[in-house]
Structures are given as C-alpha cells and as structure tokens.
Amino acid sequence: MRSIRTAGDRTSVSTASAAALPESPAKRFLRVGMAPPSLAKPSIAPDSSVMTAPDLEPYLEPGRKLFAGEAGFVWAASAIDNLPPMTGLEIAFAGRSNVGKSSLVNALTGRRTLARISNTPGRTQQLNFFGLAGRLTLVDMPGYGYAAVGKDKVAAWTSLIHAYLRGRANLARVYVLVDARHGLKPVDAEVLDTLDKAAVSYQVVLTKADALKPAELDRRIGETAAAIAKRPAAFPDIRPTSSRAGAGVPELRAEIAKLLAERGE
After folding, report:
1. Closest Cα to residue 172, out of 61, 78, 88, 66?
2. Are 135 and 88 spatial neighbours (Cβ–Cβ below 8 Å)?
3. Phi, psi of 175 (to 5 degrees)
4. How far is CA 213 from CA 56, 227, 238, in A?
5. Residue 32 maps to which CATH number?
6. Roughly how many angstroms between the first and final C-alpha of the chain, as a whole number?
7. Nearest 10 degrees: CA dihedral of 56, 61, 65, 66?
8. Burial level of 6, CB count in 10 A (0-12/13-18/19+)?
C-alpha cells in the first residue's frame, strides 16, 4: 500500500484513508466548475460524478429532461390582483437586485434569452411567469433593495413581493438568491421572515460562487447555514451556483425535479 508523507512529518497516511477524508462543499463545487460548460445545458446529460449528494443522483436525468422541455413566457403581474390563475406548481426566484435571478433562470433552462424580458423597460417592476413543459411555472421576481429608483416604486415592488409570497397556495418553494461575495443582508432577512410566517418552504442559493476561493466559499456556506438553522421554513442545504460556469446548476435542476416527485407531479 502506497503511503503519503507530509514534509517534515513522519506520519504516514494510506491512500485509502486519504481518499476517505471528507471533501469540503467549496472543493466539490469548484470540481463541478471545472467540468465542461456543456454540463450547464439541459440538452446534454450531466455527469453524475459531479453530484454532491447521493440522494440527488436519481433526479439528475429527470431534472435535465424537465428543463430541456419547452419553456416560454406566459404572464406578467404588476399587482397582486392581476396574478395568473393558480394552475400546477410554481417555484419562485427572489433576491436583491443584480443578484443574478434572470441569469440563473436562463442557466437552468439552457436558454440565454428566456428571462431577458425581465430586463426590458416596464418588466423589472413585475412578477414574470415562465411555463416549463406544462409541468411547472418559474416565477422571476423583481429584485428587492434596489435604490436607484424612487422610494415609492421600491415600496410598491416590496409590497408586491411580500403579498405574492404570503398568498400563493400553489407556491411549492422559493429559491432565495444571495450573492456569495456578500452573504445575507438585513433586506434578505425581511424576506425570510415573511416566508417563515407564511410557512412557505425556501432554499438559499448562493450565486456567483465561482468568484470566491475555496476557503472563502466554505466560510460563506457555513455562515449562511448557521444564519438559517433556526428558521422554521428554511430548507437546510445551501446550494452554491455559478450561472457563468454552470457549476451547481445540474444539482439545482435535480433538487427541483426531486421536489416535483415529492409533490406527486
């Protein structure tokens, strides 16, 4: 059996023991990030070796197929009284402005322009609904905390976001996007409070995680997990992603496919 010796240390560690050492979440994420960019496209089957959780592996292919299906814009709502009818399950993507919500929606579906409509004039103030293969609706929400517009508009957007999160009975889960470089902010905590009170399941997704070094990303994941540990509606797993590199995207698809399966869809 081959041994590994550290410099200046006579302690030997077998290769079998070394292989058994746990790999940090950041290193697993970066290993995914080193995979070919094509893994981010749902038309190409992802390599199951990049999965970080064994319970997600059975959902890799269903997730790929789900997001490889037909997808398109179906509705925009600027007020709570003109939301679309509640048909089928919805998942929503919430987060501060410029956190990368539209980029993540596009990365999930492998379409560069699906959520571009949310960046056109008049659309950023709305909830944008996208149908996915007739099985699921994705909701791209306006960013909260945006300070470059009038306070009245910010208040209106914030009111719309909170009203939607509180009153949508078919909302299966909210993915709260947090910029990995900055972590949770007080404005994020306000949204998490609303979700906890409404008993709406949510999961924190770290965006732009490829901008951090492994140790920094590990620290950010740990800080975020600790911050939500006692929140009743929070899903415990923190999902690091990079829309640019495609890292973490196959796993998020698998998470969503698993959610659908659990809901009998």
Report:
1. 88
2. yes
3. -100, 110
4. 25, 21, 17
5. 3.40.50.300
6. 50
7. -10
8. exposed
Q: Which residues have C-beta within 8 Å of that of residue 5, sequence separation ≥ 6? A: 11, 12
Task: Going residue by residue through the chain, which has 265 residues, state the pLDDT in tens, using 9 for 90 and above.
Answer: 443 333 444 433 343 444 444 566 666 665 544 333 333 344 333 333 333 578 899 999 999 999 998 888 999 998 889 999 998 999 999 999 889 888 898 899 988 767 654 444 334 578 999 999 889 999 998 888 765 666 777 777 788 888 999 889 999 999 999 999 999 999 999 999 999 999 999 999 999 999 999 999 999 999 999 999 999 999 999 999 999 999 999 999 999 999 999 998 7
Give the 3-state secondary structure of residue 14.
strand
Instruction: Look at residue 82 and tell me if it is in a domain.
Output: yes
pTM: 0.80
Distance CA 156, CA 262 (A): 35
**Which residue range forms the structural domain that includes residue 215?**
24-262
In-domain check, residue 225: yes
Q: Would 43 be classed as within a structural domain?
A: yes
Residue 11 lies in a domain: no
- CA separation for the pair 128, 84 (Å, rounded): 10
Domain count, the chain: 1
Parallel, antiparallel, or unpaired for β 3-5 and 171-179?
Answer: unpaired
Distance, in Å, from the CA atom of 225 to the CA atom of 217, rounded to the nearest integer, reads 12
